[in-house]
């Protein structure tokens, strides 16, 4: 899904050879409708893969696509919990966001915020907060910290990710690559230092894949456009290692 919000990204922005490149047909200038269109197209691509017993890997330019991935899993008759790896909380609402950046609402939208603009539009059944685990989230705005303090969504560090620290049943893993220390992933739109290493994040994901409960892997690549060969190589190797998790 080569999109950041409803913006179509260049074909090489996500440096991986995909089996399917999905495109949204919604292009009417309304960002919310555009995002919902991208999620609907994602769900339509994911659902048959899950129904056939596969584990789809969805790669996109932001975290909003995760709702489409979850909706696709639900459409195949599976009711998943979500393990959300991210340097940020992504639990703002339109009322609390100071930047207006929609990606900062992504997990809260998945949990049911603003359903008339998001979940209801493309058929997502919101995932209850108690069925969501937020991994890392070392960069929280005050409103996000306040919300999470009273939320059923649990926060755990990467090192504590294990079969018994995440919800029971099927799992959708959402990995925003900015969860990794910004020194290891150059060119991120919203870099955050002092994070876990690439190896630590991949090991945590591998522990969950070893449970055989992962039904979809959703990877957000919120980085800026670059022609730097070194940065492109880092990105390609990271995505290769992430996608290999679902192939084991």
TrEMBL record:
Keywords: Hydrolase, Manganese, Metal-binding. InterPro entries: Ureohydrolase, Ureohydrolase_dom_sf. The keyword Cell wall biogenesis/degradation does not apply. Pfam families: Arginase. The keyword Plastid does not apply. Signal peptide: none annotated. Belongs to the arginase family. This is Arginase. It comes from Micromonospora lutea.
């Amino acid at each position: 899904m080569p999109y950041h919000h409803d913006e179509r990204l260049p074909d090489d922005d996500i440096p991986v050879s995909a089996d399917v490149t999905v495109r949204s047909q919604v292009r009417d200038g309304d960002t919310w409708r555009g995002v919902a269109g991208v999620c609907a197209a994602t769900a339509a691509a994911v659902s048959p893969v899950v129904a056939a017993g596969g584990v789809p890997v969805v790669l996109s330019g932001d975290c909003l696509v995760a709702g489409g991935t979850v909706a696709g899993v639900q459409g195949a008759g599976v009711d998943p919990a979500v393990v959300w790896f991210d340097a940020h909380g992504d639990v703002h609402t339109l009322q609390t966001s100071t930047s207006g950046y929609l990606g900062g609402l992504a997990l809260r939208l998945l949990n049911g915020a603003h359903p008339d603009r998001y979940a209801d539009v493309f058929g997502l059944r919101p995932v209850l907060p108690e069925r969501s685990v937020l991994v890392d989230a070392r960069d929280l705005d005050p409103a996000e910290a306040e919300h999470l303090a009273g939320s059923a969504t649990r926060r755990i560090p990467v090192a504590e990710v294990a079969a018994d620290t995440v919800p029971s049943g099927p799992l959708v893993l959402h990995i925003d690559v900015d969860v990794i220390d910004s020194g290891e992933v150059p060119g991120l739109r919203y870099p955050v230092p002092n994070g876990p290493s690439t190896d630590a994040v991949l090991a945590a994901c591998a522990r969950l894949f070893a449970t055989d409960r992962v039904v979809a892997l959703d990877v957000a690549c919120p980085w800026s456009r670059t022609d730097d060969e070194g940065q492109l190589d880092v990105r390609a190797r990271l995505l290769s290692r992430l996608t290999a998790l679902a192939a084991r």
